[in-house]
């Protein structure tokens, strides 16, 4: 039988579940379609900036998600051959969210989902993949979820559909919305995990690092449980020829790039299954709203992992879309004109963050003799100016105020 709801959210990632929670807490009926049956997504970044932490805390999900396991990082460091070129000290920012938080997405999604389930009107269809849109009179009025393994298809009818289905958004494609992919970054990232000795009880500072020791730059941070997450940068599109030379060749490249971890790399990276390649690109959907349709998070705009902005922006999109959708449902008007307020609010920040990431990427990851002579001087110069403090605040808290409309959160838990 068809499901009738106010808002159908496609994609139960950080964007979709944050929005779903805000809406059900505002008394709006929400159905989330999520193609996966588990909360263990293929590897996703997990560094959360202070701005995102603050919003999740206001929603009451940060503390329980942290309790499941998280690591606080005091600083972001750019290092070259053991020398610190940039020391982005988050402890100098105003508290209490003055750290970079490594929080596995599974922990965040578990708590968001648990919070949603405390409200009437929430429903999640897990293992349900959006395969078609229901359109009437030029407006989107629902989604068809393809039944897996012969199960019948399910139609979800809604006043408005939200595409929160990630960087390769199916809904965006089904709606015929174009996507401008921009090759602004000249590196891809090969992610892998290593074991790390347990930390003693006393709190020892951890850092998110981008370091260059030999070979290409490496991103690294401590993750849970007792793991080290590393990202080896390589020229854009350069993985295939490397892979053709075999895993042993790649392992040697990794050891050269991260000699301090060479022993563990040789012992723990034994096959391609231990590696996860991220094709780094940025891009934006040509339209973020349509009659009866709104795009948020990676479905609307995609980013490089540099500067850890994706989750932050996804959460901020959800917070900005929330009052617009509440009004749309209450007024019975989910036309593009009403929804466009959301796009007007969010596009400028997303464009500014993309520009900041381009600067960060050039500053930290560019290769060649010119960049390695110029980089230390430029980094030293920049980190001594007040401009750097201002830039760090923008990276940490966002470039535009996004206020959570707590006045709309009137629904009571069941
Ligand atoms: C390797 C990697 C490292 C990253 N590192 C960081 C980092 O450190 N910090 C940071 O802030 N960001 C990072 N990012 C980006 C961050 O993961 C994303 O920006 C963020 O997850 C976006 O959230 P989202 O909810 O918009 O999309 P997603 O997290 O992609 O969620 C989309 C959801 O939609 C579901 N879905 C997809 N298609 C369908 C369909 N047809 N029907 C139903 N459901 C569907 C998916 O299963 C998924 O659950 C990284 C990304 C990658 C890939």
From TrEMBL:
User: SUPFAM superfamilies per the record?
Assistant: FAD/NAD(P)-binding domain
InterPro entries reported for this sequence: FAD-bd, FAD/NAD-bd_sf, PheA/TfdB_FAD_monoxygenase
Record keywords, A-Z: Oxidoreductase
Q: Does the keyword Oxidoreductase apply?
A: yes
- Pfam families named among the record's database cross-references: FAD_binding_3
Superkingdom in the source lineage: Bacteria
**From the UniProt record, which GO molecular function terms apply?**
FAD binding; oxidoreductase activity
Q: Which residues form the FAD-binding domain?
A: 4-355
What's this protein's name?
FAD-dependent oxidoreductase
Give the species this sequence originates from: Streptomyces kaniharaensis
Top-level taxonomy: Bacteria, Bacillati, Actinomycetota, Actinomycetes, Kitasatosporales
């Amino acid at each position: 039988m068809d499901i009738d709801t106010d808002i159908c959210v496609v994609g139960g990632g950080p964007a979709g579940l944050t929005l779903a929670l805000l809406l059900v807490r505002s008394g709006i009926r929400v159905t989330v379609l999520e193609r996966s049956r588990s909360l263990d997504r293929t590897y996703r970044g997990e560094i959360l900036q202070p701005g995102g932490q603050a919003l999740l805390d206001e929603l009451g999900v940060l503390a329980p998600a942290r309790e499941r396991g998280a690591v606080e990082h005091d600083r972001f460091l750019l290092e070259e051959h053991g020398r610190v070129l940039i020391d982005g000290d988050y402890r100098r920012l105003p508290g209490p969210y003055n750290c970079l938080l490594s929080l596995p997405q599974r922990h965040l999604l578990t708590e968001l989902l648990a919070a949603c389930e405390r409200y009437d009107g929430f429903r999640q269809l897990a293992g349900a993949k959006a395969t078609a849109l229901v359109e009437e009179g030029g407006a989107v009025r629902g989604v068809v979820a393809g039944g897996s393994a012969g199960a019948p298809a399910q139609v979800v009818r809604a006043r408005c559909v939200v595409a929160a289905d990630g960087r390769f958004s199916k809904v965006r494609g089904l709606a015929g919305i174009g996507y401008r992919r921009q090759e602004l970054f000249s590196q891809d990232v090969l992610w892998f995990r290593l074991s790390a000795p347990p930390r003693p009880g006393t709190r020892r500072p951890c850092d998110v690092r981008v370091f260059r020791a030999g070979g290409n730059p490496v991103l690294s941070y401590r993750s849970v449980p007792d793991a080290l997450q590393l990202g080896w940068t390589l020229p854009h599109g350069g993985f295939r020829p490397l892979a053709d030379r075999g895993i042993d060749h790649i392992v040697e490249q990794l050891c050269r790039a991260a000699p301090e971890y060479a022993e563990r790399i040789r012992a723990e990276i034994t096959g391609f299954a231990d590696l996860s390649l991220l094709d780094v690109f940025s891009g934006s959907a040509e339209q973020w709203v349509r009659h009866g349709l709104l795009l948020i998070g990676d479905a609307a705009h995609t980013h490089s992992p540099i500067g850890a902005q994706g989750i932050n922006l996804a959460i901020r999109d959800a917070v900005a879309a929330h009052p617009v959708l509440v009004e749309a449902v209450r007024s019975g008007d989910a036309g593009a004109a009403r929804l466009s307020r959301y796009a007007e609010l969010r596009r400028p920040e997303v464009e500014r963050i993309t520009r900041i990431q381009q600067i960060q990427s050039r500053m930290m990851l560019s290769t060649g003799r010119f960049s390695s002579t110029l980089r230390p001087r430029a980094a030293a110069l920049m980190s001594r100016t007040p401009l750097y403090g201002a830039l760090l605040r923008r990276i940490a808290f966002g470039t535009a105020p996004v206020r959570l409309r707590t006045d709309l959160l009137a629904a009571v838990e069941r």
